[in-house]
Design goal:
Chain lengths: 109, 109, 109
């Protein structure tokens, strides 16, 4: 038995937990406050049989892939006309940090 | 030293943490959001000497036993008389998922 | 790779996470509810290379040292004059509980 601890972005949390649940993995979502570097992350802990660890990692990679996203800058700059114009910027979202830890003893009842 | 990670139902959390504290175990309660399968669960982490792990597991089993509970259905059905009548349903509450993890190094100061 | 799990007081959390981030450690802050013994604690998980564990522990000790603090008692007692007078009391704040756990597999993408 292994414990997979995955730190992912909030916006990927629901899709990932739904997918893991469909595939019969037991997932617990921890409230993660104030990721200061990447704000808005979620920590999942997933108990998983040793031989299923790679499958779980593949699912996390699939659902939490890093990708570029165009967002509108939250603080509009003043354009040459003197009017505030929001402008689009490209940000990287998604990604995951995964720790796999060995489990001495596992009980569920 | 071992780390016991216990995922239990919210309603058992206070009784269990009180009991563990009385018996001098150090417990930390993590806010667990949106257990989607079992909504409303709490994750406890308990640092415990190797030879005390079974005692802690026994306490968790004692305080978080699975049991049947009669609840009134939240969405009343329409009775034959045309009146909405809430009806009692039996649900299983309690239970725990427990992971025991080996600790390399433990410090408290 | 090791996982350092540190339970510290809320008031030390920002300074510690800032310091660890400056020194390029990846920190995740978990919301910890209702520490019943020490109310208001925070749990940090820090993924760290084996040879850096002692450095991280030193940083935690430095930023979360136990120290005495004079606080005004929250429930003022009635003085001899019959007037409620707040009085200063000395409390111990700070400190940390640290678990270091071995990591089987570590991924970041
Ligand atoms: Ni997908
Ligand atoms: Ni009992
Ligand atoms: Ni300092």
């Amino acid at each position: 038995m292994k414990l997979v601890i995955a730190i992912i972005q909030d916006e990927d949390a629901n899709i990932l937990t739904d997918r893991l649940t469909e595939e019969k993995y037991g997932v617990t979502k921890l409230a993660t406050t104030g990721g200061f570097l990447k704000s808005g992350n979620t920590t999942l802990i997933i108990g998983v049989a040793k031989e299923k660890v790679n499958e779980v990692i593949d699912i996390i990679k699939d659902e939490c892939s890093t990708r570029k996203q165009i967002v509108t800058s939250p603080t509009p700059t003043v354009g040459t006309t003197g009017i505030f114009v929001p402008y689009p910027i490209e940000v990287t979202v998604g990604g995951a940090t995964i720790f796999v830890v060995d489990v001495d003893q596992f009980l569920k009842y």
